Amino acid sequence: MDKLKRVLEDKIIYLVLILLVIVIIAIEPKFFSLLNFKNICAQSATKIIIALAAGMVLMVQGVDLSAGKMIGLAAVVAASLMQKSDYAYRMYPHLQELPIIVPLLLVVVLCGLLGAVTGFFIAILKVTPIIATLAMQLALYGVASIYFDRPPYGAQPIGGINPTIIKIGTGSLKLGPVQIPYLIFIVAAVAIILWFVWNKTKFGKYMYAIGGNPEAAKVSGVNVNRTLILVYSIAAMLYAVAAVLEVGRIGTATNNTGNLYEMDAIAACVIGGVSLNGGIGSVGGIIIGVLIFTVINYGLAFIGVNMYWQYIVKGMIILFAVVLDMRKYARRK
């Protein structure tokens, strides 16, 4: 009986969310269609990468409130360097049109360095993660806004994006009656790489060890400080990749691109089984969490639920998931 109670407690969040999906389908049966499946997959793609990055941080007993603003900075920098040569409002009118790999590598390196700075404050200077990432969030938004507001076309959405990245962000591969967005293949590759890193490498084992007990990990010979810095740096690089793909998906960028993405990512991680107390989480669980959360978001919008009510529902889902996580943590203790 106790075992059944624990299983239900562990899985009840999934049951509640599945019930909510059933209600959405009952209200609007057209929600259950191949087109909506494709749209949900496309919307989930970049969010999965962001959530996997946020999950890495959560697993080492951290939290990253700067993710959304890191994405915003990467998006405006990448978009400004991916504009077509014949676009009238280029941010750099005299710059030769660059191969997509150049802006991608640039923002990955930039965000990786910024993530390492955040990790340095947390690991070496012992600033609590919530304060360090909140400070970085504000600083990043300021930098992105200054960059975005540059003359001569300041504060205008950055458009005229290279059609190649647009095709990657919006195109699909047709397999019979199903069209699979190109983004899904990219996300699958990222997920496979991260699964291997988390489960088959020393770095992954160190992550779980630090999340379980930092002091015990240190006594066992784990370089905790270096691992923490690497975790925040790698997470930031993943945010940069997601930012470039998001620019391709929406076809533009502003300093508010990525706003509040970190909240959805953290929520999806908790729904997917990542513990806020660290040491527990999986790639598969995070992907399931993102898909469930995206289905709920898309479904509520599809049946015409007011945006403000959507925020309330999302908030209650997050609160419910956190309460369950706290109960599971107390049970383990």
Write the layout of secondary structure elements.
Elements: H1 2-27, H2 34-59, H3 67-81, H4 101-123, H5 129-148, H6 163-170, E1 172-175, E2 178-181, H7 182-200, H8 202-212, H9 214-219, H10 224-250, H11 261-271, H12 283-302, H13 307-332
Antiparallel strand pairs: 1-2
Helix pairs in contact: 1-12, 1-13, 2-7, 2-10, 2-11, 2-12, 3-4, 3-5, 3-10, 4-10, 6-10, 7-8, 8-10, 11-12, 11-13
Radius of gyration: 20 Å
Q: Termini, distance in Å?
A: 20 Å
What's the number of structural domains? Answer: 1
What share of the residues lie within helices?
over 70%
Low-pLDDT regions: none
Helical run tally: 13
Give a structural overview:
By secondary structure, this protein is mainly alpha-helical. It has one domain (13-328): ABC transporter involved in vitamin B12 uptake, BtuC (Orthogonal Bundle). It contains 13 helices and 2 strands. It has helices at residues 2-27, 34-59, 67-81, 101-123, 129-148, 163-170, 182-200, 202-212, 214-219, 224-250, 261-271, 283-302, 307-332, and strands at 172-175, 178-181. Helix 2 (34-59) runs antiparallel to helix 10 (224-250) and helix 6 (163-170) crosses helix 10. The longest helix has 27 residues, at 224-250.
Summarize the structure.
The protein has 333 residues and is mainly α. The protein is 71% helix and 2% strand.
